[in-house]
C-alpha cells in the first residue's frame, strides 16, 4: 500500500474528470493540464489502484468495473475535501465561476429554465447551467459519478444515498389538433379510447399512468407512436388524428395550433421532485444552485382549468 505522503490528491480530481468526460484531452482541459501531463497522470492512477481504470473504446474511454466501484468513494472524498476548503471561503454568486449540471425532461425545461436562466443572468453571470435529457436508467449512476449535480423528475422510490425536495405539482390535459374532426363538440371517454394516442416515454415501453387509469375501469387505448421528446408532439399532432395526454404547463406553452381538452377520466396528479446526492449540499455552489432551483419551482402554480 502506498504511503499517503506519496499520493497526489490531484490524481483523484483527474479520475473524476475522466469519469465524466470519457476523454483524456477533454479531462485535461477540465483540470487545467496539458494532454501529455494528463496521460502521465493516468498512468500514475493506474499504478496507484493496480487497474487500467479506463480503456479505449468506440466513442471514448470506457471505465472498468474497478473504476465504477471506486467512483462513489472518490466522489465522496473529493466532496468532503471541497467542503472543508469552501467552508473557509464565503460564497458570492456574483463572482462565482462554474457549472450547475441538471437533468430533466423537456417538459420540465419548459417550466423551470426561463426563470433559472433569468436568475443566473442577474445574480451569477459566471455560472453556466448545463441542462441534459433525463435518462432514468442512468441517472442515479450519473449522480454517484459526479456527472450530474441534481435531477428533476418523478421517482416512486429513491435509494437512501439521495435527498429530494418537492418542486411543483402537475396534472394531465389532452392535446389534439385544433380542427380535429371528432372533437368539435368536446372529448368523451368513448372517443378518447377510440382515438390513436401518442406517448412520450423516457424508457422503451408503451405504457404510462393513463393506461393504469384506463385498466382500472376495464378499458385500454391504442398507442400509435411513442416519442422521446414532448417538443415533437405538436407538429406530429398537427398532421394526424391522434391525441396526446401531457403535462398541463407544457400543453399551455407549446401548442398554439392545437386545442386543449380536459381528460374524460380521473387521472393522477404528481409532484416533480428535485433530487441530489446526500452530502452534495455541503458544497457552496451546489447548495446555492439547489436553492435557486427550488425557488424556481415554488413560483409555479397549476394553470387554470382548460376549456375544451
Helix content: 40-55%
Q: Going across the biggest sheet, name each strand in turn.
A: 4-3-5-12-6
| Low-pLDDT stretches | none
CATH topology of the largest domain: D-Maltodextrin-Binding Protein, domain 2
Mean pLDDT: 87
What composes the largest sheet? 5 strands, mixed
Order of helices and strands: HHHEEHEHEHEEEHEHEHEHEEH
**The CATH superfamily title of the largest domain:** Periplasmic binding protein-like II
Number of helices: 11
Q: Give a count of the beta strands, DSSP E runs of length 2 or more.
A: 12
Structure description:
This protein is an alpha/beta fold and 308 residues long. Helix 1 (9-21) packs across helix 2 and helix 1 packs across helix 4. It has helices spanning 9-21, 24-31, 35-49, 65-86, 106-123, 139-144, 189-194, 209-216, 233-238, 248-254, 284-298; strands spanning 54-57, 60-63, 98-104, 127-133, 150-153, 162-170, 172-177, 196-200, 222-227, 243-247, 258-261, 270-277. It contains 11 helices and 12 strands.
Could you give a quick summary of the protein structure above?
By secondary structure, the chain is of the alpha/beta class. Helix content is 40%, strand content 22%. The protein folds into 3 domains: 4-86, Arc Repressor Mutant, subunit A (Orthogonal Bundle), CATH 1.10.10; 98-168 and 275-298, Periplasmic binding protein-like II (D-Maltodextrin-Binding Protein, domain 2, 3-Layer(aba) Sandwich), CATH 3.40.190; 172-268, Periplasmic binding protein-like II (D-Maltodextrin-Binding Protein, domain 2), CATH 3.40.190.
Question: Keywords, please?
Answer:
308 residues; D-Maltodextrin-Binding Protein, domain 2; five-stranded mixed sheet; 3 domains; 40% helix; Arc Repressor Mutant, subunit A; elongated; 11 helices
Amino acid at each position: 500500500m502506498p504511503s499517503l505522503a506519496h499520493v497526489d490528491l490531484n490524481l483523484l480530481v483527474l479520475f473524476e474528470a475522466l469519469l465524466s468526460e470519457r476523454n483524456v484531452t477533454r479531462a485535461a482541459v477540465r483540470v487545467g493540464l496539458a494532454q501529455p501531463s494528463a496521460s502521465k497522470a493516468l498512468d500514475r492512477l493506474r499504478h496507484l489502484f493496480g487497474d487500467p481504470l479506463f480503456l479505449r473504446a468506440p466513442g471514448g474511454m470506457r471505465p472498468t468495473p474497478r473504476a465504477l466501484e471506486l467512483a462513489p468513494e472518490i466522489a465522496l472524498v473529493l466532496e468532503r475535501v471541497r467542503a472543508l476548503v469552501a467552508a473557509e471561503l464565503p460564497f458570492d454568486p456574483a463572482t462565482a465561476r462554474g457549472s450547475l449540471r441538471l437533468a430533466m425532461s423537456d417538459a420540465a425545461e419548459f417550466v423551470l429554465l426561463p426563470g433559472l436562466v433569468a436568475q443566473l443572468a442577474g445574480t451569477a453571470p459566471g455560472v453556466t447551467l448545463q441542462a441534459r435529457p433525463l435518462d432514468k436508467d442512468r441517472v442515479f449512476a450519473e449522480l454517484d459519478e459526479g456527472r450530474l449535480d441534481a435531477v428533476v423528475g418523478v421517482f416512486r422510490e429513491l435509494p437512501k444515498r439521495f435527498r429530494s425536495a418537492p418542486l411543483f405539482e402537475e396534472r394531465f390535459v389532452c392535446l389534439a389538433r385544433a380542427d380535429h374532426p371528432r372533437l368539435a363538440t368536446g372529448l368523451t371517454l368513448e372517443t378518447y379510447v377510440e382515438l390513436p394516442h401518442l406517448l412520450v416515454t423516457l424508457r422503451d415501453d408503451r405504457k404510462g399512468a393513463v393506461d393504469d387509469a384506463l385498466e382500472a375501469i376495464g378499458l385500454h387505448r391504442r398507442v400509435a407512436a411513442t416519442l422521446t421528446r414532448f417538443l415533437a408532439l405538436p407538429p406530429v399532432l398537427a398532421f394526424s388524428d391522434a391525441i396526446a395526454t401531457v403535462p398541463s404547463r407544457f400543453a399551455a406553452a407549446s401548442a398554439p395550433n392545437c386545442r386543449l381538452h380536459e381528460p374524460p377520466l380521473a387521472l393522477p396528479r404528481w409532484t416533480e421532485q428535485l433530487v441530489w446526492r446526500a452530502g452534495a449540499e455541503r458544497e457552496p455552489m451546489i447548495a446555492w444552485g439547489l436553492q435557486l432551483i427550488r425557488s424556481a419551482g415554488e413560483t409555479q402554480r397549476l394553470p387554470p382549468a382548460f376549456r375544451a
